[in-house]
Write the structure tokens for this entry.
Amino acid sequence: MAALLTKMGSSGQARMLSHLWKRGVTTAVQQEVLPELPYDYNALEPVISAEIMLLHHQKHHQAYVTGFNKALEQLTTASDPRAIVALQSAINFNGGGHINHSIFWNNLAPPKEGGGEPPEGNLASAIESQFGSLDNLIAKLSASGAGVQGSGWVWLGLIKDSKLLKVETTANQDPLAAKGLVPLLGIDVWEHAYYLQYKNVRPDYLKNIWKVVNWSDVAKRYDSA
Amino acid sequence: MRIHKLASIMLARHGITDFFWSSIYPGGGGQPDGEVLELIERDFGSFEEFTKEFKAAGVSQFGSGWVWLILKDAKLSILKTSNALNPLIWGYIPLTVVDVCEHAYYLDFQNRRPDYLNAFLDKLISWEAVAGPLAQAKAFVTLGEPTIPEK
């Protein structure tokens, strides 16, 4: 049994637990799992190094997943309002980190898989009419990203009702939904996203990342919002 | 207005970072002695308890920020702040600080912030530098029982 569990790996085990839970076999809390990266760790080089991608995915994102699952577990056993409320910041931080990074990996793609190619269709028209051009939007996103104090994200978000696009920033791992926007494109400006390669020169990271932004993923989110 | 806000954030960060540089030195670390150790044992129970609490604060400071040893209500205490905030805002007295923004440790420790905090306490912290602000604080804060000087 132990050998089988080891072979399944943690994502396999989590899927098994989830399956058993749905069948009512166990009351284990449904666990989140680290999503696979849609490309190899070196696929975004030279824009983002394999070393950064490995640490970012396997250490940072995994830590958010682990932290979120732990907080959820504690939530199921918390018995009084004080204990429950005390878990809020851990759930927001780790859950937000998991949500944000899950979007981020898909927002990026190697150039041979479309990374860096300008958007088409409805998103392209919306960008043109609301920002004048893709270059204008990119300039705005880069400037906002460079201006984030401390750790956070810069986003292209969508106001669902009016279908209006908005450039917005969030602190730490706060999800963009907390600002009432649908996340379309997120750029991680925490230092772990670029420091090993770009050191403190965040503007250089922001200048280069557009070469691997997967605009077709962004467009899909726009169309399905 | 935005420029004033940015300038004040930069100034605050500059001040805190300066304080950080004077809180560490090569060959630092280890335990304090004398009055600093007495106060740590009085207010945390033991030096081990202090290091445990200090490290726990360090790893639970989500995002960028700082972990401070402060004097609050005449007692030693640990405070964590984010970004450009510092204990003076609340009238507390900063004694030492560790920078837990990722740029402070990422090249050497990557995501391993706990290892960085161990290194700070084992090899960097200047307990001599704590004595300075503590001595100044005693000019207007009574840390223990007030003593009547002998004639």
